[in-house]
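lol forgot to send this yesterday, sorry. struct tokens for the thing we talked abt
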């Protein structure tokens, strides 16, 4: 992971999240919340998990010694206590939260330096265990996690009759 790659991934994820939320808005609330047999059940719960996961990781990344701006930005958001925590009841609320998260992620990615990415991040996992991991690898995981679950979400949308189009990174970057 390089700072330039983080910036590109933040932009890509933001674009794909916009596309995902626009497609999800075409479904009725019943369709959105319908258990479709996915890991998190419904499309809504899958999208919620993505926001929860991002919030958890941003709180962890804010512990980096050089993450002052991120610490301030994410400090206004409560840290979720579970990976399947429901933060909101409606797509409109979740969409607003997602938009804010994507702005925070984009701004944070622009602050990353090779020196920061070369460091180790110390944090606690969801079970409270102390962890030490390569920061660049954690940032890679952060973006990969979004892509992974957006893939699940796009399948759920397709099964509901909504095609969000091409989502491949290489098709969208110049």
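and heres what i got for the seq, position by position
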């Amino acid at each position: 992971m390089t700072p330039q790659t983080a910036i590109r991934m933040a932009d890509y994820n933001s674009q794909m999240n916009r596309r995902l939320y626009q497609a999800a808005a075409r479904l009725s609330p019943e369709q959105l919340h319908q258990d479709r047999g996915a890991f998190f059940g419904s499309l809504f719960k899958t999208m919620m998990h993505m926001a929860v996961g991002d919030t958890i990781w941003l709180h962890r990344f804010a512990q980096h010694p050089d993450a002052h701006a991120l610490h301030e930005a994410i400090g206004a958001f409560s840290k979720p206590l579970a990976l399947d925590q429901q933060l909101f009841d409606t797509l409109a609320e979740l969409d607003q939260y997602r938009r804010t998260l994507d702005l925070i992620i984009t701004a944070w990615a622009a602050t990353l330096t090779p020196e920061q990415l070369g460091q180790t991040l110390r944090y606690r996992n969801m079970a409270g265990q102390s962890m030490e991991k390569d920061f660049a690898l954690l940032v890679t995981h952060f973006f990969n996690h979004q892509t992974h679950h957006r893939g699940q979400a796009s399948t759920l949308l397709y099964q509901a009759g909504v095609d969000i189009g091409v989502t491949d990174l290489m098709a969208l970057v110049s």
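Helices lie at 3-24, 29-33, 43-61, 68-74, 91-109, 114-117, 135-159, 169-172. anyway ping me if u want another try
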